[in-house]
Amino acid sequence: MAELNNDLFSKIGNLSVDGYFIYSVESKSFQYLNDSFGKIWGIEKNQILNTPKLLVNRIHPEDIDHAKSCLEECLEDGTEKKYEFRLLVEHVEKYVRMIIYPVNNISGLDLVGTVEDTTVMRHNKIHIEQINARKNITLEVLAHDLKEPLGMMRLTASSMENDIAKTGSLEMINSVSFIKDMCERNLRLVRSMINKEFLKSAEVEIGKERAELVWELRDVVRFYKRSKLGKTKNFQFTTSSEKIYMRLDSMKFLQVINNLISNSLKFTNDNGYIGVHAEECENSVVISVSDDGIGIPEDLQAGLFNRLPQTLRPGLKGEESGGFGMSIIKSIVDLHQGKIWFESEVGVGTTFYIELPK
Fold it and tell me: What does the record give as the reaction this protein catalyses (predicted)?
């Protein structure tokens, strides 16, 4: 039966564009490889059969430890495993997904599985995530850009209202009232649009993938710096490491960072400081978003993540708060098996910390 299964496996492999393999752990050699396996790795099949260690040289230097730990985990658990890592073929990065099945037979333990080139799919996914993240940031920036002039128009109309009432002109009174109502309606519309968009995307389960955190965070801060908000706030990004690789749902996590920055914008005066920092630790990464704004009063701190009515307060320019942001932030961090906390002092500023496991 084992020979029949191996024969069927080989026939399928010979027809597939994915790589198929059978590797003997005891003899440390491949019992079967299809041609596609060699093409994905960029090495002739016969070379791999003669010198299996050549495969290690193709693994991206930054992923070698990850690949070794994956193999050790598979051998230890003895169950089906799915792994993703990168190859470096002629200076070109290639993403691969490997599915491994440990199979015990008379001759010992074999690792049987497939390898799929996921480079195009990964690049497309990264591109989509970047577009979605930029969309969320753009919406938030647009909201801030719209709220200020609408708020000023509403304030101006209110200041004109008493004087116009003295004229007795019903047409003018109605016109000013119309301006006030339109400003109020559109201010609510802008905030509702942001809250609904954030809620809608947060409802989806997270899908963690390998991501380069420093690049993602630097790109977010860079976008704020280049926007109109960059002229009224001092945005800064710092990091303890030039590159930090970890598994996370980039799109969801950037929503968290974007929402924390949005909160800082509400409660930080013009020319104030808003900073994002990434600190790589031994088993985790700590990301912080800090500002030198008005701070959070002690009586509002306890229920901040629970959307309690008493924790809701308008921003410095009257920005409304629906209270969704903090509870969603906490939910997304929890889904990443992370922790979130903050330190704040009235008149000094606030710093939110997020710790994620590597």
Answer: ATP + protein L-histidine = ADP + protein N-phospho-L-histidine
On whether the CB atoms of residues 246 and 280 are closer than 8 A, the answer is no
The DSSP output letter for 205 is: P
Name residue 32's beta-bridge partners: 22
Q: Which helix (H) or strand (E) holds 75?
A: helix 64-77
Burial of 261 (0-12, 13-18, 19+ CB in 10 A): buried
pLDDT single digits (tens) 159-179: 787 788 878 788 888 888 888
pTM over 0.85: no
| DSSP conformation letters of 269-322 | -TTEEEEEEEEE-SSEEEEEEEE-SS---HHHHTTGGGT-GGG----TT-----
Could you read off the pLDDT of 33-63 as tens digits, one per residue?
999 999 999 999 999 999 999 999 999 998 8
Look up the CATH number of domain 122-357.
Answer: 3.30.565.10
Assess contact for 154 and 180: CB atoms under 8 A.
yes
Q: Of 300, 272, 273, whose CA–CA distance to 288 is shortest?
A: 273
Alpha-carbon distance of 263 to 257, in angstroms, equals: 10
Could you please report the per-residue DSSP string of 223-257? HHHHSGGGGTEEEEEEESSS--EEEE-HHHHHHHH
Domain boundaries, the chain: 2-117, 122-357
**Chain mean position to CA 334:** 14
Listed in sequence order, the residues at least 6 apart from 61 whose beta carbon sits closer than 8 Å to its beta carbon are 88
